[in-house]
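Table 4 source record.
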Amino acid sequence: MSNYALILAGGSGTRFWPLSRNAKPKQLLDLFGKGTMLRQAVDRVSGLVPAENIFILTNHLQEEEVRRQVAEIPAENIVAEPARRDTAPAVALGIGLIAARDPQANMIIIPSDSLILDDDSFRALAADALALAEKENALMTIGIRPTWACPSYGYIERAGKLNAEGLTHDCYEVVRFREKPDAATAAQYLESGNFTWNAGMFIWNVAHVRSQLATHTPQLADFITRLTSTDNLPEFIRTEFPALTPISIDFALMEKADRVLNFEATFDWDDVGSWISVSKYLPTDEQQNASNTPLSALNAAGNIVFTQNNKRVALVGVDDLIVVDTGDALLVARKDQADDIKKIVNGLPENLV
């Protein structure tokens, strides 16, 4: 009962347009026929902590849909941030909400938009980390062993392995956090073997992280202290949260913390950053066309097709396209320009964003 989970469920809906919209971004979509990514995240931590100990942070555009999808979570545990302030203020808000409930709590923080299929392995590692949080004065992360030299992720550089009694998963002392590298540097990280991808998953004891914030980020520490003593929580969040400096939790705390540990994930992980990532989990034909709907292809290869209504799609003489049909909008894009889909959203009519 001293373990808590914080799920970060904000974010915009640009990379997966036209399926995703501002009010229904990636984490609120069922992209793989296994439930929405938020639903999967809640189910994943439900094996670790009771429902009353799960907190979810979202925003006003998505709050109604979040509440609908996870109705078993107590209403007061779902909080909409009144302004976008990056991950450090969001995490501080979550720490404050949990600290007000249990000042000695242990907590795990996970994003709602990562795909993890092996929930049992996740829970086993997370349980190990939560148990260690009670014993070690350290902030903990879960890192992903790199499978290729990706320049789009942050990296965590590690030193020696921790030798702690009762620990059943590999855990390492952290040397430093590294920002997104260029391709050549990412290749060096991969070759060295002592780096993990930073997956944005954190575990710590609430009292310890508050102490670290007081040392390294006093504004956030003060915000938490005042939040835990307010007699009007909604009004406090509405007025005080927007005044916080926008900054990531890595810059604000993790890169400055006195001691950080890194567990190496024993489970699969995918941040599903684009339609190309989604295609890896869709049925594929002989021409490597990936689709969630009936598909007829003639001299067409390497395409990605996704529809909401199970309609038959026919492709003739086209290769390496992304085709997404939502009824009110149709996207046709080249796969090598998948990252530019978010750019076109800025010029769309408001009812399609």
